[in-house]
Amino acid sequence: MAEKERLSFEEALIKLESIVEQLEDEDITLEDSVKLYEEGVKMSKFCTEILEKAELRIEQVKEANTQ
């Protein structure tokens, strides 16, 4: 988890894209596929959380400026 906390959104997205590319490789073993899938799910969740926080901040700014 500490690694994810140090990643920026862009870095996490690049890592997620890399995982997807590796999963598309026909020569990957089942074990490696499962490990990559697990890592990909974590990266996806991490990216989603960052986006949700950004959306909340944007909504707060919009509300503060419409009052």
From TrEMBL:
Domain of life, per lineage: Bacteria
Coiled coil residues, start to end: none
One Gene Ontology molecular-function label: exodeoxyribonuclease VII activity
Cell location: Cytoplasm
Entry keyword Ribosomal protein: no
The EC number(s) this enzyme carries: 3.1.11.6
Pfam families tied to this protein: Exonuc_VII_S
Gene3D superfamilies xrefs: Exonuclease VII, small subunit
Reactions the enzyme catalyzes: Exonucleolytic cleavage in either 5'- to 3'- or 3'- to 5'-direction to yield nucleoside 5'-phosphates
InterPro entries (alphabetical): Exonuc_VII_S, Exonuc_VII_ssu_sf
Major location (coarse): cytoplasm
Key words, A-Z: Cytoplasm, Exonuclease, Hydrolase, Nuclease
Assembly behavior: Heterooligomer composed of large and small subunits.
Family: Belongs to the XseB family.
Family annotation (HAMAP family): Exonuc_7_S
Protein role: Bidirectionally degrades single-stranded DNA into large acid-insoluble oligonucleotides, which are then degraded further into small acid-soluble oligonucleotides.
NCBIfam families for the chain: xseB
Protein name: Exodeoxyribonuclease 7 small subunit
